[in-house]
Design goal:
The chain is α+β, with helices and mostly antiparallel strands. The chain contains 14 helices and five strands. A five-stranded antiparallel sheet has the order 1-2-3-4-5. It is found in: Chromosome; Nucleus.
């Protein structure tokens, strides 16, 4: 006996399609997800798996209805790498790295996508952040084909069965142009200050020269000092370096009192992505205070969850994939 749906010839919707319609994600993300559903209805998260094992994770778990394994108290840490700042949200992994949405403010939609490659030894210290696209996940497809020297035309055949193929091809054409990423990177430089290790700058409101002061005039020396302290076996050397970092911590406190909150944000970012456990206490302390002062409380919640759940707990699992 035919159901009413079958009699009226109404196509069945997959759970993923229904979830997309009720999602609070941006239209750009939903559009990309719908493309994935059309390419691979059974497993949309793996629609582009042929491209270096590219797989959607993070927020796409919800859209794919695969969030059942995530406990309510640690969903903020789902699919996060140890060097994923609260400003970052990993949404895809591939053989060799991962992609993150980047937000400067917790309430805004992501405007950038960052690529973080993993080195051969899979050591998560001072990762290289590269602007790989705008807010559209489709833009990283062209980035990855270029990065891995894939045959782009051959890969584009995957879109053949999609109704709005011409629209997708137009976007891909723009994303493939060299100036696309150059303009994104130049714009980023114009709206940020500072020289944090990740190379993306920090976005801080500066009024009458108040809001930011640099952590150091020598970024390379700061990096070298962090490494030296983490590896120091000589107690005298370690004590001297510790005194130096406590002094920097004091400078951040003074800067906060004088409303130069950007110094704490930059210093906190540097300590965070250095990813040495010996700096975890100072990292959390600096960023907790900074996010509160900047009224970026949601980032503070993510930070707290990372420390409570285990900041490095996902790295071992990802090593098998990336």
């Amino acid at each position: 006996m035919k159901t009413k749906r079958q009699k009226e010839n109404i196509p069945h919707e997959s759970p993923s399609s229904k979830k997309a319609k009720t999602s609070k994600h941006s239209s750009v993300i939903i559009d990309f997800w719908n493309i994935c559903i059309k390419i691979n209805p059974k497993s949309p998260a793996e629609a582009f798996f042929s491209l270096n094992s590219f797989k959607l994770v993070g927020p796409f778990r919800y859209l794919n209805d695969l969030h059942f394994g995530i406990k309510s108290n640690n969903y903020l840490c789902a699919d996060r790498f140890s060097t994923d700042l609260p400003e970052m949200q990993t949404f895809a992994i591939y053989h060799g790295g991962h992609f993150c949405f980047w937000r400067d403010l917790p309430e805004e939609e992501p405007k950038l996508i960052i690529n973080i490659p993993n080195n051969q030894k899979l050591i998560f210290n001072f990762p290289i952040f590269t602007i790989a696209g705008n807010e559209d996940p489709l833009s990283v497809i062209t980035f990855l084909t270029s990065l891995k020297k894939q045959n782009v035309k051959k890969f584009e055949n995957i879109f053949e069965k999609i109704e709005n193929r011409s629209e997708i091809m137009s976007k891909l054409k723009i994303y493939k142009e060299k100036k696309f990423l150059e303009e994104l990177r130049e714009k980023r430089k114009q709206i940020t200050v500072g020289e944090p290790f990740h190379g993306l700058g920090i976005k801080i409101e500066i009024i009458n020269d108040v809001g930011y002061r640099p952590v150091t005039e020598n970024t390379k020396k700061l990096r070298d000092d962090i490494i030296a302290y983490s590896k120091a076996k000589d107690e005298a050397q370690k004590a001297k370096l510790k005194e130096h970092f406590l002094q920097l911590y004091t400078y951040v406190t003074i800067a906060n009192d004088e409303m130069d909150f950007g110094m704490g944000l930059e210093f906190g970012h540097d300590l965070f992505i250095s990813n040495y456990e010996c700096f975890d206490g100072m990292t959390k302390s600096v960023l907790e205070v900074t996010y509160g002062l900047l009224k970026r409380e949601e980032f503070g919640k993510i930070l707290k969850a990372q420390w409570e759940y285990g900041r490095r707990i996902n790295d071992k699992g990802f090593k098998r994939i990336v």
